[in-house]
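Here is the promised in-class demo. Please do not try to memorize the tokens; focus on the logic of going from shape to residues.
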């Protein structure tokens, strides 16, 4: 069953470029993972401080492996210092 993750981040205006830089590293490493179908960072057109990670995984097991990967565990905690509020994460299954 395909899993989709939507992680919406409200980034401090002065930290947007640094946040994007960290996320590009996360995206690059995540795309190499087995079970990763899609993984990308998207910026809202009307509010450049809203940056959302859109991910698609083959199954829950692939997502679990990603959440426990070295690159995720190293980079994800660093992102919080760039945020105005906590990341809003929603996980969906394809019907």
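The designed amino acids, position by position:
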């Amino acid at each position: 069953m395909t899993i989709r993750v939507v992680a919406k981040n409200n980034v401090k205006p002065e930290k947007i470029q640094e946040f994007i830089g960290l996320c590009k590293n996360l995206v690059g490493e995540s795309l190499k993972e087995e079970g990763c179908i899609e993984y990308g960072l998207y910026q809202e057109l009307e509010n450049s401080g809203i940056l959302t990670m859109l991910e698609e995984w083959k199954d829950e097991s692939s997502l679990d492996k990603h959440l426990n990967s070295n690159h995720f565990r190293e980079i994800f905690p660093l992102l919080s210092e760039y945020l105005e509020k906590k990341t809003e994460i929603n996980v969906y299954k394809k019907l």
